[in-house]
Amino acid sequence: MKGKTAIIGDGESILVFKAVGVEPFAVKNADEAEKTLSDIAKSYKIIFITDDIAKQIDEKISKYTAQSYPIIVSVPSKSGSNGYGEQKLVEAMEKALGINLFSTNGK
Amino acid sequence: MRLNVNPTRMELSKLKARLKTATRGHKLLKDKTDEMIRRFSEIIREDKLLRDSLETEISETLKKFSLARTLSSKSDIELAFQIPSVSVEIDCDVKTVMNVPIPKLTLNKSEKKDKYPYSFGFLTSEADVAVDSAGALIEKMVKLAELEKAVAMLADEIEKGKRRVNALEYVMIPNLIETIKYISMKLEENDRSSRVRLMKVKSMIGEQ
Questions:
Q1: Taking CB atoms and an 8 Å cutoff, what residues of chain B touch A17?
Q2: Residue A48 neighbours by CB under 8 Å, 6+ apart
Q3: Residue A28 C-alpha, separation from nearest chain B C-alpha, in angstroms
Q4: Given pLDDT bands bounded at 50, 70 and 90, which one contains residue B84?
Q5: Domain A5-79 sits in which CATH superfamily?
Q6: pTM of the predicted structure, to 2 decimals
Q7: Is B138 within 8 Å of A20 (Cβ atoms)?
Q8: Which residues, 6+ apart, have CB-to-CB distance to B134 below 8 Å?
Q9: CA triplet B188, B193, B196: central angle to 5 degrees?
């Protein structure tokens, strides 16, 4: 099975990934991102979303978690990571193991 | 809670068979969940490492590129990236970890001769650097996608498995045991009462 990749993000900084074959979709706000996501969910296998957007459309993304494809991955935006990806990891871990393996500060 | 069955020998042997299956199933499921958890913690550690290193790299790349963008006009940039030089195709396979289907991705990079989709004079060198690092990143990003999905799907499956194990351990098996006990007691009770009846009858016959 062959698949394509896409990236959803704000502004045009994501355009750089077009040079390596990832289709960029620029969106301005969460509503637009949601719409774009449902539009492209069928045709792309991997969809990267910058985490400032991902955080706003968390609910929508969760719908795709149970399916094997598309794979939705949050990547940091140009202003750096906001911890969304990490938070998702911790959530999954707490769901599965009941504890957080990574907590070092004893929280 | 006792199951709603008739206290007969038939039911008793049926229930005993069910108890046997349930105990066996419980053991198997428990082992399966334990193994899934072990795999899960391996994957999640790997994922965490990859994500940590990737997050800084990606935002670096995006930062570099937005810098490059400010140096050229918007239309120039859009024109430059009109045709990608590298087409990334992904082979999507499914592998199973303890019967959980998780995606397995392999990246097919078909590179053309020149790395950049535009001529050298067209954009500044900042753009080149950004494109370079994006090219280096894409492989890792695909790997991250694979791991992240595996984590999400395994977490789901482990949760389900745990629930099943608990349902067997704390509901199904105790219920069966209780019902079996109830039936065998009832049967013994019937036995005793019929014996007493017989003895009574015998003594009445003997008196005559």
A1: 134, 138
A2: A5, A6, A7, A8, A9, A17, A22, A73, A74, A75, B141, B145
A3: 16
A4: low
A5: ATPase, V1 complex, subunit F (3.40.50.10580)
A6: 0.79
A7: yes
A8: A16, A17, A19, A20, B61, B65
A9: 125
